[in-house]
């Protein structure tokens, strides 16, 4: 099999990211189709002359995005639903759903005008329903909490209540009292089981989501050559550790990393004079740009994908329907 995946070992971009994007292109162009079985990790590694661990990392991320699915004893396949969505487009799929609803409404004796009026009222009811709903987001670091609460665009007036995991551990009774007025609890998969245990009301839905670093940011960092010195400046050691873990997972082990959570201007200035670039949490970007205007300041953000946002909205609607 002659795969049209190009791996450039001199580009500075992690090989697993190149492989991941290459696989997406094969699917988008129809080279690999919905439901098709693809090479095993070992087979693909041999075809491209790369390590099996690299292939495994790319496959796992694509599985997390719903593009691939692995079945024990059968292999890895292109996910039918995602492939169809990519081919048809979200708008086309929605139009198809509406067409089916129109046909069923006509069979029930409703006119087109009646269908439009009922659909309009129903959509308004759902919108008003969501506007009254509250989500609690539980995370281990202040940086991610603040960013999620400020930048998570769920729309329709949904309220997001940030809860620091450490506060929940120290004051479970107080936090559970707050959660009584919350419709849905959201946390990352990493903390999901602990949060479920801490939530006193076992009937309350606790939803796990994935937050991943932006690929563009990883690529930008990867372009720094062997031995480059980069500073990590955050509010907490927890978030700094999260950044280090993300870089390690991306295979970026060629950099010297220095960490600081200090707010002392003199201390930070001394640190920034001795590095090639600085990686910052979102809430410290402006501060560091002011201290070192000529330094490359790279903002590290961990974001949910669009599908995750849709999952949250669907969960809220299901809760209200119940």
From TrEMBL:
<keyword id="KW-0805">Transcription regulation</keyword>
<feature type="domain" description="HTH gntR-type">
    <location>
        <begin position="13"/>
        <end position="81"/>
    </location>
</feature>
<keyword id="KW-0238">DNA-binding</keyword>
<dbReference type="GO" id="GO:0003677">
    <property type="term" value="F:DNA binding"/>
</dbReference>
<dbReference type="GO" id="GO:0003700">
    <property type="term" value="F:DNA-binding transcription factor activity"/>
</dbReference>
<dbReference type="InterPro" id="IPR036390">
    <property type="entry name" value="WH_DNA-bd_sf"/>
</dbReference>
<keyword id="KW-0804">Transcription</keyword>
<dbReference type="InterPro" id="IPR036388">
    <property type="entry name" value="WH-like_DNA-bd_sf"/>
</dbReference>
<dbReference type="InterPro" id="IPR000524">
    <property type="entry name" value="Tscrpt_reg_HTH_GntR"/>
</dbReference>
<dbReference type="Pfam" id="PF00392">
    <property type="entry name" value="GntR"/>
</dbReference>
<protein>
    <submittedName>
        <fullName>GntR family transcriptional regulator</fullName>
    </submittedName>
</protein>
């Amino acid at each position: 099999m002659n795969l049209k995946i190009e791996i450039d070992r001199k580009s500075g971009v992690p090989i697993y990211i190149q492989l991941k994007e290459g696989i997406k292109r094969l699917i988008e162009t129809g080279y690999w189709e919905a439901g098709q079985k693809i090479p095993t990790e070992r087979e693909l590694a041999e075809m491209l002359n790369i390590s099996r661990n690299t292939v495994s990392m790319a496959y796992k991320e694509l599985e997390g995005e719903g593009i691939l699915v692995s079945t024990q004893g059968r292999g890895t396949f292109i996910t039918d639903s995602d492939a169809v969505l990519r081919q048809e487009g979200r708008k086309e799929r929605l139009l198809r759903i509406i067409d089916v609803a129109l046909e069923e409404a006509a069979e029930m004796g409703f006119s087109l005008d009646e269908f439009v009026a009922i659909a309009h009222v129903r959509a308004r009811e759902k919108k008003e329903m969501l506007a009254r709903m509250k989500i609690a987001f539980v995370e281990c670091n202040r940086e991610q909490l603040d960013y999620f609460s400020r930048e998570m665009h769920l729309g329709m007036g949904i309220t997001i209540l940030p809860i620091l995991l450490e506060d929940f551990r120290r004051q479970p009774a107080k936090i559970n009292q707050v959660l009584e007025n919350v419709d849905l609890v959201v946390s990352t998969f990493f903390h999901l089981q602990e949060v479920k245990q801490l939530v006193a009301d076992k009937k309350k839905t606790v939803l796990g989501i994935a937050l991943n670093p932006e690929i563009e940011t990883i690529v930008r960092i990867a372009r720094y050559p062997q031995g480059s010195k980069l500073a990590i400046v955050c509010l907490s050691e927890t978030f700094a550790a999260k950044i280090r873990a993300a870089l390690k997972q991306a295979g970026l082990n060629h950099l010297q990393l220095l960490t600081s959570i200090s707010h002392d201007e003199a201390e930070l200035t001394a640190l920034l004079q001795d590095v090639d670039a600085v990686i910052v949490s979102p809430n410290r970007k402006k501060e560091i740009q002011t201290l070192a205007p000529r330094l490359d300041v790279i903002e590290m953000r961990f974001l949910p994908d669009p599908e995750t946002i849709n999952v949250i909205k669907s969960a809220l609607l299901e809760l209200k329907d119940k």
